[in-house]
Amino acid sequence: MQLDWVMSYMEAREIQESLPEAQKQLPFQLKERKCGKFSPELRNFALTLHFYSSAAYKYVRKIFGTKVLPHPRTISKWYSDLDGTPGYSAEALHAIKIKVDIEKQNGKSLLVR
């Protein structure tokens, strides 16, 4: 059974306004992006979406076009750039340092367990 789903202009507008900036830009990426690097926001969105569901990632690429999001092999290359050695990664320690600095500015301290 096929369901017909029609959305009013106001509903579409409300959904669009609730989206983070990276997701708002997806439809426009198809026209603007020719070749080159992806924006940090779009890269983060692509990595997160692919991490949670590769099927959803493939669906978004199919609906919006293959130029909107990077190919899954590109995502694999991005993951291979991360240091996978045992222990705390430099990226994790850097993120913790940023959080500590923010809390210090607010007169608070950060406890990491």
Walk me through this protein's architecture.
- The structure is a single chain.
- The protein has 113 residues and is mostly helical.
- The protein has a domain at 12-82.
- Helix content is 63%, strand content 0%.
Structural class of the secondary elements? mainly alpha
| Residues in helices, as a percent range | 55-70%
For the largest beta-sheet, the strand count, sense and barrel status come to: none
How much of the sequence lies in strands comes to: under 5%
Domain THAP9-like helix-turn-helix: 14-78
Protein name: THAP9-like helix-turn-helix domain-containing protein
Pfam families: Tnp_P_element
Organism: Callosobruchus maculatus (Southern cowpea weevil)
Concise overview:
The protein is mostly helical and 113 residues long.
Can you lay out the helices and strands and say which pair or pack?
Blueprint: H1 9-18, H2 21-32, H3 40-52, H4 54-64, H5 72-80, H6 90-105
Feature tags:
113 residues; mainly alpha; THAP9-like_HTH; THAP9-like helix-turn-helix domain-containing protein
